[in-house]
Amino acid sequence: MAHRILYYTLDGDCARARELLDQLDAARDIELIGCAHEPFVPPTARQLEGCEGMIGEFAPAIKDTVGLIADAGVRIVASMSIGLNHMDIEGLTERGVIVTNCPGYCAEDVATHTVALMLDLMRKVTFSNRDVLAGGWDPKVGYEAYRTQGRTLGLVFFGRIARAVVPIARSLGMRVLAWAPTKSAEELAAAGCERADSLEALLRASDVVSLHCPLIPQTRNLIGARELALMKPTAYLINTARGEVVDEQALVDALDAGRIRAAGLDVIAHETRPDRRLIDHPRVVVTPHSAYDSVEAADNLRIMSLEACVDVLVRGMAPAYAVNPQAIEAQHLAPRP
Question: Given 271, 296, 329, 336, which residue is catalytic?
Answer without folding.
Answer: 271
